Amino acid sequence: MSDSNKAASSIYILGIALILAILAGTAASYASYKMGYKQAATEAQVELANKDKELALAKKAPSSVKDSVKSKKRSDAPEPLAETHYKASDLDIPGLSALPAETAAIVLEALNTTRGACEPCHMKGSSTAECLKTTKICENMPRLAKRAIRMARSGRKLDEIKEALTYEEPWVKVDITGAPVKGPSTAPVTIVEYSEFQCPFCARSQATIRELKDKYGDKIRLAFLNYPISRHSHAKQAAIAALAANKQGMFWQYHDLLFQRQKDIRKDGFFDDIAKETGLDIARWKKDQQDPAIEEQIKKDLLQSRKVGVRGTPTFFINGYRLRGAKPTAFFEQIIDLELADASAG
Q1: What's 213's domain CATH number?
Q2: DSSP letter at 313?
Q3: Of 75, 110, 126, which marks where a domain is finished?
Q4: What gap in Å lies between CA 130 and CA 114, rounded to an integer?
Q5: Is 165 within 8 Å of 195 (Cβ atoms)?
Q6: Cα separation of 204 and 327, whole Å?
Q7: pTM for the complete prediction?
Q8: Domain check: are 156 and 23 in the same one?
């Protein structure tokens, strides 16, 4: 056989071998796909069967259990608003009795027909007037009364005043002791953010916070509280790293880079790289991460979160008024502008 024939024969054999290898691979892939499909189908059938069992058990459940579930759902919702009919003489509101009768009537109607903004009164369905008269829980209540007087005196209509007294979420007192804070302590508005560094919605909300800081400057201050959740496996580690950076006065620089590089949080050496870029003393930063005070701060934040109604991140409190989720900037501005107007009025 000539050399050219030998070469052609070798190429032919290699071609046949390649085709056989491709066919073998395809067959293996198909077998694997078929096995995986069969397994997935089996798992789906098991899951459906379990759900059927759960439904069957639920149908057989005693009425007392069903009633307790319904009762729990009902208790989570605020009671209907109970409007009141208090007069100026019934309420200890400075400046109310000095108003013209028609203006005072508008203020009283607004206070008697809006839901109390502090959480206990909000949940009980108490009016703002009832809350003012019977509780000392909400330190913002006298402020809201002054707001109603100020707006009525300036000629604002009843509906506008009622809207200014009504909040999507009620007022609660939030303790920020030990938390990282940015902005002057004299700022009339404090925005507290319950957040975590692996939450994509928290990362998205940072643009809104920057817009607010650019617009209002030293009129607002920011406080950061931790709410790492278990399904985000790097969230607590990020919280510890950021609080360790806070010991060198660089929390917010570390905070910003964590959110900017969030997609890389699972990479090896991620937290060290952020620390180097921030300009931290690395040895000190690593030692500070072992400080029990950091663990205690995170526990304190989480414990308080249950008391103030945090159920997910981000959750904000603007001078105590709760705002859930990565809301558009306008939602924040509406509350901030009212709070600033109150502060300027004295």
Answers
A1: 3.40.30.10
A2: S
A3: 75
A4: 10
A5: no
A6: 10
A7: 0.75
A8: no
